[in-house]
C-alpha cells in the first residue's frame, strides 16, 4: 500500500530553469497538495502531460526527493524517516537510468547486488528469471555500449528488480523503446500483477495505460484531478476512450471548456 497525504513539492528555480520554463517566478510548484492511496496488487497509472508532476511524485515515493509538505508511506514506512525500509520494498525504473557502457549486464548486475547487499540466492534466482524473460541471456556478456536501446532498458529493468520488490515504480517504462520491446515491458507489468505485486507507472501514452492499468490518476499542473478506473473516467467525462476522457479533463482544468 502506498499512502500519499497532501503532498506538495516546490522547486527553487535557478536562472537557467527560469529561462527554460519562461517564467520570472523564483519557484515552481511541481506537485500541489496531492493525496492518493494505491492498493496492494494493483497496477496504477499516473497520467499527465510533460511537466505535470509525474516524475516528481514518483521520485518522492522512491525516496529520491523529499516532500516540501505532506507525507508518503510505502508499506507503512515513511519515505523520509524510514527511507532504507522503503527502498527494500520498491524497485524504481526510469528510462533515464543509464548503465555504464564499459561493462556487461552480467557484471553490472553482480556489481549492484554487492553494492546493495542483496542476498545472493534472491538475486541469482531473479537474474535467471529476468534474463530469460527479457532475452538478455545471449547479450549478458557484451558491453552495454554494444547493446540496442531496448536491450539496455531491459538490462536496467532486470538490475532494478534483482531484490524481487513488492512494489515496482516505472517512470515512463516504454519511452524511447521500439514496439516489440515496449510490448515485452507491458507484458512484464501484467506478469507482475499476476504475482500480486503493486505497480505504479507514469505515462502520457493513453493506449498503454488502457492496456495495463486497473486504476489511473490524472495529474494536471501538479494537481490530481481524477482518480478511478478506466470505466469511471469515461463515465465521468461521457467519452468512449481514455484519450478523449483525458482531453476533456485537461481542457476543463485548464479553463478551456
Ligand atoms: N530540479 C528541478 N528544479 C526546478 N524545476 C523542476 C525540477 N524538476 C522538475 N521541475 C519542474 O517541475 C515541473 C514538474 O516536473 P516533472 O518532471 O515532475 O513532470 P512530469 O510530469 O514527469 O513531466 P515529463 O513527462 O516531461 O517528465 C515541471 O515544470 C518541471 O520543469
From TrEMBL:
Entry-linked SUPFAM superfamilies: P-loop containing nucleoside triphosphate hydrolases
Sample GO molecular function, one term: ATP hydrolysis activity
A family per Pfam: ABC_tran
Domain ABC transporter residues, every copy: 2-246
Keyword Transport in record: yes
PROSITE patterns: ABC_TRANSPORTER_2 (PS50893)
Keywords: ATP-binding, Nucleotide-binding, Transport
UniProt record similarity statement: Belongs to the ABC transporter superfamily.
Cited PANTHER family: ABC TRANSPORTER ATP-BINDING PROTEIN (PTHR42711), ABC TRANSPORTER ATP-BINDING PROTEIN NATA (PTHR42711:SF5)
Annotated protein name in UniProt: ABC transporter ATP-binding protein
Amino acid at each position: 500500500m502506498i499512502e500519499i497525504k497532501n503532498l506538495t513539492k516546490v522547486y527553487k528555480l535557478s536562472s537557467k530553469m527560469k529561462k527554460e520554463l519562461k517564467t520570472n517566478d523564483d519557484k515552481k510548484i511541481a506537485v500541489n497538495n496531492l493525496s492518493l492511496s494505491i492498493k496492494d496488487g494493483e497496477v496504477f497509472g499516473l497520467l499527465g502531460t510533460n511537466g505535470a508532476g509525474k516524475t516528481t511524485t514518483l521520485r518522492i515515493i522512491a525516496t529520491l526527493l523529499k516532500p516540501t509538505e505532506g507525507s508518503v508511506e510505502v508499506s507503512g514506512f515513511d519515505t523520509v524517516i524510514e527511507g532504507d525500509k522503503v527502498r527494500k520494498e520498491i524497485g524504481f525504473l526510469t528510462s533515464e537510468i543509464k548503465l555504464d557502457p564499459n561493462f556487461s549486464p552480467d557484471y553490472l548486475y553482480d556489481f549492484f547486488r554487492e553494492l546493495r547487499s542483496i542476498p545472493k540466492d534472491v538475486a541469482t534466482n531473479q537474474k535467471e528469471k529476468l534474463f530469460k524473460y527479457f532475452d538478455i541471456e545471449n547479450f549478458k556478456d557484451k558491453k552495454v555500449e554494444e547493446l540496442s536501446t531496448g536491450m539496455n532498458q531491459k538490462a536496467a529493468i532486470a538490475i532494478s528488480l534483482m531484490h524481487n520488490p513488492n512494489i515496482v515504480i516505472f517512470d515512463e517504462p516504454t519511452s524511447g523503446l521500439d514496439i516489440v520491446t515496449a510490448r515485452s515491458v507491458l507484458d512484464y507489468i501484467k506478469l507482475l500483477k499476476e504475482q500480486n505485486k503493486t505497480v505504479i507507472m507514469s505515462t502520457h501514452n493513453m493506449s498503454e495505460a488502457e492496456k495495463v492499468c486497473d486504476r489511473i490518476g490524472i495529474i494536471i499542473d501538479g494537481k490530481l484531478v481524477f482518480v478511478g478506473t478506466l470505466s469511471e473516467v469515461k463515465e465521468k467525462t461521457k467519452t468512449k476512450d481514455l484519450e478523449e476522457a483525458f482531453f476533456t479533463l485537461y481542457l476543463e482544468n485548464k479553463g478551456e471548456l
